[in-house]
Amino acid sequence: MAVCIVQEAMLAKTLKYEIESAIKPYEDSRLHDLVDLAGGLPFAIKFVASRWADHYSAPRPLKISENPALTWGTATYVTPMAFPLSSALYGRIGLVTEFDPAGWNIFDATDPATRMLYVNWVQVQPAFSDLVLTVHSTFANHYLRNKFREDFKIDCVLFHPDQEAELHTDRGQHVWLAVTDWTNSVSKEGIESGMSAIFSKARFTVLLDEDFAMEDRGLPINKAPRQIEKVTQAIANRVGMNVGRARVDPNLPSHVINVFTSGGYLHVYIEP
Amino acid sequence: MSDFLFLARDFIEHMVNPAHGVVVNEEYALRFASLLQRKGFEDLFLQEIRDARDQNALTSHGWLWLVGWAKSRNIDLPTELLVDLFEEWSDVFVKTTILDLATRNAEYRPPDHLEISITDFPNDFLRRVMLSAVRVEREEYTDLKGLPRERGDEIRRPEAIPEMNRAESLLVSLLQVGRPITLGAASTFLRYEWQGQRHMLNFFRLLYERLDEESRTAWSRSIPFMPTNPEGTNRQ
Lengths: 272, 236
Description:
The complex is a heterodimer of chains A (272) and B (236).
Chain A: H1 13-22, E1 24-25, H2 30-37, E2 43-48, E3 76-80, E4 93-98, E5 105-108, H3 112-123, H4 128-133, H5 137-151, E6 156-159, E7 164-165, E8 176-179, E9 182-184, E10 189-191, E11 203-207, E12 215-216, E13 219-220, E14 223-224, H6 229-232, E15 238-242, H7 243-248, H8 252-261, E16 265-269
Parallel strand pairs in A: 5-6, 7-14, 15-16
Antiparallel strand pairs in A: 1-5, 2-3, 2-4, 3-8, 4-11, 6-8, 9-10, 12-13
Chain B: H1 3-16, H2 21-36, H3 41-51, H4 60-72, H5 79-88, H6 92-103, H7 124-140, H8 149-156, H9 164-177, H10 180-191, H11 197-209, H12 213-222
Helix pairs in contact in B: 1-2, 4-6, 5-6, 5-7, 6-9, 7-9, 9-10, 9-11
């Protein structure tokens, strides 16, 4: 059982004990198993928009996400290396970073029984009635998830993705991480919201040749189809050309016309 | 409003207003975080915020972000500004966030007696928001003693008391933050004799009675001199 010092106020002892018992030290957690699955060294990956490729060409810290729309509150959202393409929905640039999970308290929300403890905790909050009645439920949930993580000094929440990139994300099997940077890392107090000190040396490492839509009719997309790959698979005549060669090839116009007339497509790619 | 905040207002709006979408929000958040890392920028930004007395300096989304950011960086905002922001919003969770920031470093020694009133509560922010929550009623019915008995009873009925939402939100926020000082304030607020007291005691009873037995015990343990009798102040 992880050692937690929880604000005692207003919480039943049994529920407090159940939650504390469910919070595991890293060594006993599913995250440890996932790190083993990917070779034993703790690495994480996060996909971002292409415009950040240059910024992260040298090691830099990841940004802590504080957007209320995100699943588990203010945290750095990453994927363990066991699922390297799982978060491809969010961009073509994969930033890879090492991290040190020693001493982490892990709340595994992929486990239904553990997840239900959070629900039970929410139900006994004084503001529960307001949560179910307010029109500002996104902010309300954001507040409660931050409070829960802060009260129980949770370093990392494991959760299943709630958005999918077709063929890249498996909502039932994949696990994502919401990791807390503490304002006071010794006492684990205060959730930091600037740049992550935990993921401080992320570097552009993966370039993915695909794009996914993030929204569907103005709402966050549930399952994003591949926009490029599945179209190209249906075309018989596929021609590839290195972009450096293409830029200087005097025959490029005729190549393009030939591909067009044959009903094929030309893939101008970046040669590694 | 300063030119600096005028420029920052639009930038922060793109960073935090969900209407711009997660992609835009995250893009601006990363740019803003990069700006904050530049030498002198954070100090300048903080100074402008501390000097801000105008609620229009930022949008509602902007203020909400700023309150959370200030908490994460353990930064004090002026009490005057926090009281104004607390009064501005009706949403309980926004109020709770502000109240949380305002009391996070507050010193408090629980009183050993019941007689403390909200007018004497030993925290400027909490005293002001509690007085504000009962303000309208006091101004509208300044002299109940001068009214005929039946008219006084009518005014004391919950449905005749205006603006109870404000008092209810305050009570929930005090309980939700759950610090000894806010729980002490909740107890003091419930004991304060005003036109809305009976309504508030009933409201508290509803919150309390929806809980399981063990949670009720935890509330009783945590709230000093917890009133349990909705018909009047219970002096345990």
